[in-house]
Amino acid sequence: MKVKLKIWRQANAKAKGQFKNYELDDIQDEMSFLEMLDALNSKLIKEGENPVAFENDCREGICGTCGLFINGRPHGPGEQIATCQLHMRLFKDGETIVIEPWRAGGFPIIKDLVTDRNAYDKIMQAGGFVSVNIGGTPDSNAVLISKEHADEAMDAASCIGCGACAAICKNSSAMLFIAAKVSQLALLPQGKVEASKRAKRMVAVMDELGFGNCSNTGACEAECPKGISLAHIARLNREFLKANIKS
Amino acid sequence: MSNFITSSLGKKVILSLSGLFLIMFLLVHLTANLFLLGGSDAFNIATHFMDTNPVIQIIQSILALGFIIHILYALIIQFQNWRATPVKYKKKYQKESSSWSSRNMIWLGIFIFGFLFTHIINFFYVMKFGEMSSTIVHGEEMHDAYKLVVGLFTGGTLAYVYSGVYIVSFVALGLHLNHAFWSAFQTVGWSNDIWRKRLSVIGSLYALLISVGFTVIPIYFLFIK
Q: Which CATH topology does B2-84+98-224 take?
């Protein structure tokens, strides 16, 4: 198949970027989206042009490194997949595909389609951990966890921190990401102890880093490659309120 | 506490609680309005009660404060959100991922504020500070509020214009409330996967009740009365 690409090119963080058009022939249905971009880059290198910079690592949907805004949606068409899991069969022959980097105040562009997502790491450093000394391996039956809580914690833990939530949010809010992290730990006995404090600290850092306020539109949940539920945001709100009432 | 008020979530909690307070007020307002359908005496008695009851007078000041807080915090939050999204996408597909009203709360809010202004000039200002004719109901002299309402919604082209403005505003209010109701509960943490569905349904029914309930009044005077 043939595709027309409209890709955001920006030399560096300070340069003024613009869209550039490319055309690619001989694209096979079974190619992944990133393989298609690899093919484009091989062509550009042969022609002596700078290849398009984009991030990727595991290419199996678990690392959260890839993240492109494709045809108006984070990670493109297809439900609950990361960009690397997107295949060319979801596009029509001759279709124009618009590829943009994440556009959010908290994710400044470094080059082309690569954005600086250190903000999420900084939020994690503020509280996305359990700071108790757990000692040796405990007896597996010593601390019982209900199936419901284990399942819900696991759902929250599936967040790969790709940034799609903030990317689609009309306010560039990172709430779904933080909610997943707070929820995952708050549901388990080891993390419960610090649940409220953690929520307060992570929200404070989120506010500092230029993310907007959540207005509960639900776009993040709809576009999350892992289908993280808005219910986790409600839990984050609860933990945050608890922390403030306690203090 | 100061951290709470300046944090993004704290501001949203204040917005939600003031919103929930206004949601309750709308029910009271609607109840009072529906006395209009009972005729002039019924409405005038209801208005006289609202006008003279000391508890209502105190609540009135709190209500004004509720409006001010809600509008002020909505604007602060909105300006921060605009600042957080300095560059727009060339192509953004969001029809299926979020509802129209959830994306346009600020514009619906601004529209409703414009209506509120008109509404206060039409009724509240006249009732409190303007000159009104009096009537005697069951031997007690009181303002003829019924006449004021009838005057606005009947006779002439202006009645049609006012009715149109009021009806469009109630549709905007309904859309605003449709997202607001569930959203307010979500923000104070009262939601999960089950309650979200329940609250969304209750919210939609509430929005419909308010929208239809208030719309009935201009329609009643324009076409039925």
A: 3 helical TM bundles of succinate and fumarate reductases (1.20.1300)
